[in-house]
């Protein structure tokens, strides 16, 4: 099971959309106050878009498909599961990632300040 999940995460990294690529450029290599994020990181039974173990923070970049009722329900259940594992989930749309990525980094910084002294 782990090998399949790892292969799936790898394929997601290789086929990332433009919004995810832009956000990854801002998160990678500790660019946000030294916090290390991983891309397409497996947590429990899910593969998250971005995750920082130190902050226990997940960032999800949602495309238009996430507006569908069935996907909204699935996202809600997924988020509840991740939160039950001790993670905080921040969701942003593709439009937010492409038009105002600085707002995403500001939100991540603000969240990090709440957690780390």
Characteristics of this structure?
single chain; 117 residues; alpha+beta; 4-stranded mixed sheet; 5 helices; 4 strands
Please describe what this structure looks like.
- The chain is α+β, with helices and mostly antiparallel strands and 117 residues long.
- The chain is built from five helices and four strands; from the N terminus they run ααβββαβαα.
- The N and C termini lie far apart (38 Å).
Rounded Rg: 14 Å
Largest sheet properties: 4 strands, mixed
Low-confidence stretches: none
Helical stretch count? 5
Q: What is the share of helical residues?
A: 40-55%
Strand content: 15-25%
Overall geometry comes to globular
Order of helices and strands: HHEEEHEHH
Describe the structure concisely for a colleague.
This protein has 117 residues and is of the alpha+beta class. It has five helices and four strands, in the order H-H-E-E-E-H-E-H-H.
